[in-house]
């Protein structure tokens, strides 16, 4: 969603709805705004471990929480002056978070209420395995959700419309660039630690956006750029 779209949503919100986003729907969920399509989002407690109550949320801990390792308070670990120990604590919390990734797996979130879906991906996508899309399509099939699924033979990640405009680099809104540069700054000053190869890739991307380096000239993907027409036809004939 672009900055302009977000600002447009905010302009449509009433004062009560804006205040409600600050107070929360319950102990674990932010309030959504159904009429504007803004969902309720779950947050988790921390940073002394992954605390989460699946049901019966309360601030006293009377109701059952999801089982997780509880670590000492930050003031206690900081007083140890043991950076390696604190690093291991952070890694352990991260491992526990991995178990929650099932919630982020789209194919596990498909229900009979899922709207019809149009999917496309390339078989050579180097960042998102095409198997992910197959799993999602299979879940849609099992729930009898109308869908169309196209896998194109070749194409990199991030093709967008894959047309001449994309090939000529007619993309990149100010908001998108702003977020990329902010992330790059956080990585370089150590606020957001990442593997060295990821840091190098992000810096190269920033150089490309600022014109310091030029990416290899792209060509419109004649196969993939058909997807908007395929989607339009599917929508008109199926929905």
List keywords for this structure.
single chain; 239 residues; mainly alpha; 9 helices; 2 strands; globular
- Spatial gap, N to C terminus: 24 Å
Strand order of the largest sheet: 1-2
In terms of structural class, how would the helical and strand content be classed?
Answer: mainly alpha
How does the overall form come out from the CA principal axes?
Answer: globular
Count of individual beta strands = 2
Estimated radius of gyration: 22 Å
Contiguous low-pLDDT stretches (5 residues minimum) are: none
The level of helicity is 40-55%
List the SSEs and their pairings.
Elements (H helix, E strand, L loop, with lengths): L2 H10 L2 H9 L50 H6 L3 H16 L18 E6 L7 H13 L4 E6 L11 H4 L6 H15 L7 H14 L17 H12 L1
Parallel strand pairs: 1-2
Compact summary:
This protein has helices spanning 3-12, 15-23, 74-79, 83-98, 130-142, 164-167, 174-188, 196-209, 227-238; strands spanning 117-122, 147-152. It is mainly α.
What would your notes on this structure say?
With 239 residues, the protein is mostly helical. A two-stranded parallel ribbon has the order 1-2. The model has no long low-confidence stretch (mean pLDDT 80).
